[in-house]
Amino acid sequence: MSKQNPLLEAFKQTNYQVAGNGKRNVQVLKDAFAEVDGEFESDMYGKGKVIEEFQTKIAEFLGKETAVFFPSGTMAQQIALRIWCDEKGLKKVAYHPLCHLEIHEEDGLKELHHIEPVLLADKNRVIELKDVVDLDQEIACLLLELPQREIGGVLPDYDTLVSISSYCREKGIKLDLDGARLFEILPYYQKTAAEVCALFDSVYVSFYKGIGGIAGAILVGDKDFIEKSKVWKRRHGGDLISLYPYIVSSDYYFDRRIPKMEQYYEEAKELAAFYNQCDSVQTKPLVPVSNMFHVHFDVAKGALEPILIEIYKETSVGLTGYLQETDENSCSYEVSIGDQYEKVPKEKLAKVFELLREKVSKK
């Protein structure tokens, strides 16, 4: 077993893992292409049947006029904000302090587009209408991330979204949705994707998170917006000669997993309840609002790792392959439910949490 990361190695050796859609290996691509005709033509620089039909399919699903496929969501999001800033002649946008653009993109929005972000709301909660109304400076665009991943995948209530959308339209502020996990929140809101997207001027969705494709994203909006995004896609180097491996896998897993989002949501609530029965353990949110949540332990990372490794060896069920230290006496990790959860025998899952309660209570 690796001395560098014994928890990860123990996790990999389990027969069952409670989270995710399975290993990200070449089989994911092989399965997607299993029934694809070898003579099927690829796309070429953003044109061709395979890319155009998928773009149309997703635009219709999201209730928008048109769409463009991108190799990454990072590229799509930055381009969306750039277009809205150019349209207004104001290079200033607002988003949450823990927005992906702010903490995971090496200041790409600032360095590549010279756009100034305004950080809105306290980092430990979602953006509310009052935060938007109380803005003391003009912005071209407001970005909302649904769910707010870095604080456990929490969501504002739907009426708040409607109010923010109405206010932005009244004030001439464009509203952009970071919908990397849009499909996963629809069961909680009990809304269609089109109903949610109707509140926004532009929307980005991902195909490798809950959908489980290889990579790729789609940006949707009106025709003028999407035509401008295609120009910026070329400028960003996103017009690869062919993107069909991403598109075919996205389409394949989209069809198979969209109908399962309600199941993933119910399973996430079930799993969170198991965690919350343990002393010194709590999920955030307490009751999940999507297929994802964070698990927080009032146990030091160094003390919890050997406990989990013991449980993995005894049950062959893996909970996580990593722990993130929050302070010297606590740690956490993220859970996203997918196809794997239903494969775990219920008696084994019960045993895992029986052991977890027993071992954590002794710490």
From TrEMBL:
<dbReference type="InterPro" id="IPR015421">
    <property type="entry name" value="PyrdxlP-dep_Trfase_major"/>
</dbReference>
<dbReference type="Pfam" id="PF01212">
    <property type="entry name" value="Beta_elim_lyase"/>
</dbReference>
<protein>
    <submittedName>
        <fullName>Threonine aldolase</fullName>
    </submittedName>
</protein>
<dbReference type="InterPro" id="IPR015422">
    <property type="entry name" value="PyrdxlP-dep_Trfase_small"/>
</dbReference>
<feature type="domain" description="Aromatic amino acid beta-eliminating lyase/threonine aldolase">
    <location>
        <begin position="40"/>
        <end position="294"/>
    </location>
</feature>
<keyword id="KW-0663">Pyridoxal phosphate</keyword>
<dbReference type="InterPro" id="IPR015424">
    <property type="entry name" value="PyrdxlP-dep_Trfase"/>
</dbReference>
<dbReference type="GO" id="GO:0005829">
    <property type="term" value="C:cytosol"/>
</dbReference>
<dbReference type="GO" id="GO:0008732">
    <property type="term" value="F:L-allo-threonine aldolase activity"/>
</dbReference>
<comment type="similarity">
    <text>Belongs to the threonine aldolase family.</text>
</comment>
<dbReference type="GO" id="GO:0006567">
    <property type="term" value="P:L-threonine catabolic process"/>
</dbReference>
<dbReference type="InterPro" id="IPR001597">
    <property type="entry name" value="ArAA_b-elim_lyase/Thr_aldolase"/>
</dbReference>
<dbReference type="GO" id="GO:0006545">
    <property type="term" value="P:glycine biosynthetic process"/>
</dbReference>
